[in-house]
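Researcher: Sit down with what I've pasted below and flag anything odd:
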Amino acid sequence: MDLATLWFWIVAFMFVGYFVLDGFDFGVGMSLPFLAKDDTDKRVLINTIGPVWDLNETWVIVAGAALFAAFPEWYASLFSGFYLALLLILLALIARGVSFEYRHQRPDSQWKNWFDWMIIVGSALPALLWGVAFANIVQGVPLDADHNFTGNLLTLLNPYGLLGGLTTLLLFFTHGVVFVSLKTDGEIRERARRLAVRAGIVTVVVAAGFLLWTGLAFGTTWFWILAAVAAVALIGSWFLNFRGLEGASFTLMAITIAAAVFALFAVLFPDVLPASNDPANSLTIENASSTPYTLTVMSWTALIFLPFILGYQAWTYWIFRKRVTRADIEAAPAH
C-alpha cells in the first residue's frame, strides 16, 4: 500500500471518529424536545455530553487538516464546491457551542428557550448536511477540467443526497438517544430507551434503503461486506436496547456508523471525488494527493501523536463515565 492510499484510509478513520463521537452529541441535542419535561431534564441531557462535546468536535478539525495536507486538490474542490453547505454546518456548530456556554448565564425561561432551540437546530442541521455531502461525494458531482465544482447547493439536494442526509440524521438521533439511556437514570432513562426503540425502527428502514440504493448503483464487494456489518449491528443495537442493555446497544450503534462510513469510502476508492458529467474530470487518490515527502512527514507525525490523542480521549471518557441524575443536577448550581 502506497502512502497516498494509506492516507485515504486515515482520513476515512478520522471521519469515522468524528461521526461516531460527535454523532451522539448531535443526537442528544436533537432529543431535547422529545425527552425533556422541564428545565432540570434539559440540564441532565446537556450534562451527559457537557464534558466531552468539544473534544468530540475536534475530530472534524483534525480530519479537515489531514484532508488539506494529504489531498490538497480534493480539499480545494470539496470546500469550494460545497462551500454553502459547509458554511451552514460551521454556523450551526458555532451556534450549538455558544448555546452550551451561554444558556445558563441568565435565569429567565425565554433566554434559555432561545438557546435550547439553537442547540436543537445546531445539532440537526449538521447531522442532515453531513449525510447530504457524503452521499454526493459517493454519487459524484459535476466538475470541469480543472476539478472545479460547476453546480450549486440545489445540485446537492438531489433525492440520493437527501436520503443520505435523512439516514445520518436518524442514525445520529438514535445513537444519541441510546447514549442518553446509557448516561442517565430513572424516568428519563426509561423515556430514552422507549424513544430509541421507536426511532430505531424508522432508522433501520431508512438506512436499509440508502445502503441498498448505494449498493445497487455503486456497490463493490467490500461495500457489501461492510454494509452487511452495519445492517447486522444496527438491528442488534435495536434489539439490545429493547432488552434494556444500553451499553451493548451503544457499542453496536458505534459499529453501525463506523461500518457505514467505511463502506462509503470503499465505494469511493480509488476516486476521492468522482465527476458525474465526465469521468476524465474525476479526482483520484493519485491526482489529488500531496508529494511523497509530505505524506512521509505526515505519517511519522501521526504515528507519534495519534496514540496520545486517542489515549487522552479514552481517559476523558473514563473520568466522566458515571450516570447523570436529576439529583446531581438539582444539587448543583443552576445552569
